[in-house]
Write a structure and sequence with these properties.
Layout (H helix, E strand, L loop, with lengths): L6 E7 L6 H9 L7 E7 L6 H11 L6 E5 L6 H11 L4 E4 L5 E2 L4 H11 L5 E4 L1 E5 L5 E5 L9 E2 L18 E3 H4 L12 H10 L4 E4 L4 E5 L5 H4 L5 H21 L5 H23 L1 H13 L10 H7 L1
Parallel strand pairs: 1-2, 1-4, 2-3, 6-11, 7-12
Antiparallel strand pairs: 4-10, 5-12, 6-10, 7-8, 9-11
Amino acid sequence: MRSSLLVSVCMITYNHENYIRDAVEGVLMQETDFGYELVIANDCSPDNTDSVVEDYLQNHPKGNSIRYFSHKGNLGMMPNFQFAVQQCTGKYIALCEGDDYWTDSRKLQMQVDFMEANPDCSLCFHAAEIVQEGSDAPISVRRCDIGSEKGRVNARELLDTGASDVRTPAILVRADILKALPQWYYQAPIGDIFLKFICASKGDFGYIDEPMCVYRTMVPNSFTTSKTKMGYEKVANHYYETAKFIGLFNAYSQNKFKQETSAFLKKKRNGSASVIRKRFGLLKALQFMFESRSGAKFKEPYIGSKSIKAIG
């Protein structure tokens, strides 16, 4: 048996009563030669999430490995995540939100083994099954086709897509990185993408080519659901906010990844234009492309000391 506690599993949840049993079971079934804890932060869910977690605390044989925090008021997703991370005590932090789940009991052991053998890597991830809410059958499996025989991935090569192959429930990351995230990160419009960007600035990624988790899409109250209901202004503003925070990341990383972030923003802009054309027509798409290229709609410089200072 290695160190008594090596991994903290960080699980944020809100209105996940229909899903969180799968999430908790996937964590508690892990077979490891080290200790791990499950930190659950419930953001004042109005449903029965609290009752489900309490049942595990009282009745599961591994219930004593769960540390449960149930907020009396709603903090919001990013503040809740920040709170949960600060409660974690392990050398590594594995991520699994309450509507996702793990499917392989070897997952943590395999990831920790890799990280212990490659201490210069910032995180380790693996392939993930994508499942749409209401179905058990995966619609796809996200794999990474970039990497060496030893499983190391040059994270720089993933950034032009926002590291879309790196799904949140597949991530195990060094705790020292998560506990020292810059304050601006917690106001970012897409938390998982900017987390991967920051980790890429800290080292290579490890990759295990086995699907060991399920990432659910179209869950009620999730971003994948809300973005399908966005009006034109929200779709456009989401791009502008993303661009602003890309500027903050570039400043944070001393522009070492500017080529990759520029490629990512171009793809993001083209993707947003495609959505706008499909839902709001060609003229709106042309308006968005003109405004996004000219910077006419940016409320403040998104690459500059003023915006960095304002956000911290």
